[in-house]
Amino acid sequence: MLAFIRRSQGQSYLVVAPLYLARMNKGRVVPPAEIPWGNTHVILPKNLPDEWIDVLSGYRYQGAGQMYLRDIFREVPLAFYRGG
């Protein structure tokens, strides 16, 4: 997984992308909800908002301090969140 945060003009942005999906799924095309993410999660710094909105899907994520990949990648294995 690759994840990074940027801040601009009072907003926080979080980008999360999976790595090695083909290897993880043994070359099969698998819907994001069926990928075995387990308890893999992104740990967020303490000074960030608790609510995030995925700019790509409109999905709202409420998560204080961490975000689980199984939730982040429910529909698409790529996320671009705006905090606040």
How would you portray this structure in words?
This protein is mainly beta. The chain has a single domain, classed as Immunoglobulin-like. The protein contains two helices and seven strands, in the order ββαββββαβ. The strands form two sheets. It has a five-stranded antiparallel sheet with strand order 1-2-7-4-5, with no helix packed on it. Strands 3-6 form a two-stranded antiparallel sheet. A hairpin with a 2-residue loop joins β1 and β2 (about 10-15). The longest helix has 4 residues, at about 20-25. It is elongated, with a radius of gyration of 13 Å. About 15% of the residues are buried.
What's a concise summary of this model?
With 84 residues, the chain is mainly beta. It is built from two helices and seven strands. The two termini are 23 Å apart.
Secondary structure layout plus pairing:
Elements: E1 2-8, E2 11-17, H1 21-24, E3 41-43, E4 51-54, E5 60-62, E6 66-68, H2 69-72, E7 79-83
Antiparallel strand pairs: 1-2, 2-7, 3-6, 4-5, 4-7
Mean pLDDT: 87
CATH fold-level topology: Immunoglobulin-like
Helix/strand order = EEHEEEEHE
For the record, the CATH architecture stands as: Sandwich
Number of domains: 1
- Fraction of residues in helices? under 10%
With strands numbered from the N-terminus, the spatial order across the biggest sheet is 1-2-7-4-5
Strand fraction band?
A: 35-45%
Total beta-strand segments: 7
Sheet having the most strands? 5 strands, antiparallel
SS content category:
mainly beta
User: What's the CATH C level?
Assistant: Mainly Beta
**Given the C-alpha coordinates, what overall shape results?**
elongated
Radius of gyration: 13 Å
Task: Provide a count of the helices.
Answer: 2
Low-confidence stretches are none
> Could you tell me how far the N terminus lies from the C terminus, measured between alpha carbons in angstroms?
23 Å
